[in-house]
Amino acid sequence: MRLENTNVARTTAGTITVEFRGEGNDLITVRMSAEPGSADEAAIIRAKEMMAELVAAPSDRISPSAV
Q1: What is the pLDDT of residue 20?
Q2: Which superkingdom is the protein from (predicted)?
Q3: 54: how many CB neighbours lie within 10 A of its CB?
Q4: DSSP labels for 30-44?
Q5: Contact indicator for 49, 25 with CB cutoff of 8 Å
Q6: For each successive 10 residues of the chain (67 residues), what is the average pLDDT?
Q7: What is the pLDDT of residue 59?
Q8: Which residues pair with 28 in a beta bridge?
Q9: How far apart are the first and last CA of the chain?
Q10: Which CA distances in Å does 6 have to 1, 20, 25, 58, 66?
Q11: Which helix (H) or strand (E) holds 12?
Q12: Secondary structure class of 2 (helix, strand, coil)
C-alpha cells in the first residue's frame, strides 16, 4: 500500500484511532488506548509498532474469526 494520508482521531475517552489511507481507497485503522493529551505523532508511531508486531506474529496466533 502506498501511503497517501494519515488521520488521528480521539474517538472516545481514553481511545485514539489512527487511519492510514492509501491509493485506491485502501485503509488500515488501528484503535488503541491513549493517555489524555498524548501527541498525534506518538499515536502514529505506536500504531506502526503495533502493525509490525502483528506482521511478525505467528500465523497460528491470528484467528480468522476475530477479524
Answers
A1: 98
A2: Bacteria
A3: 11
A4: EEEE--TT--HHHHH
A5: no
A6: 94 90 95 88 95 85 61
A7: 76
A8: 20
A9: 20
A10: 13, 5, 12, 27, 25
A11: strand 3-12
A12: coil
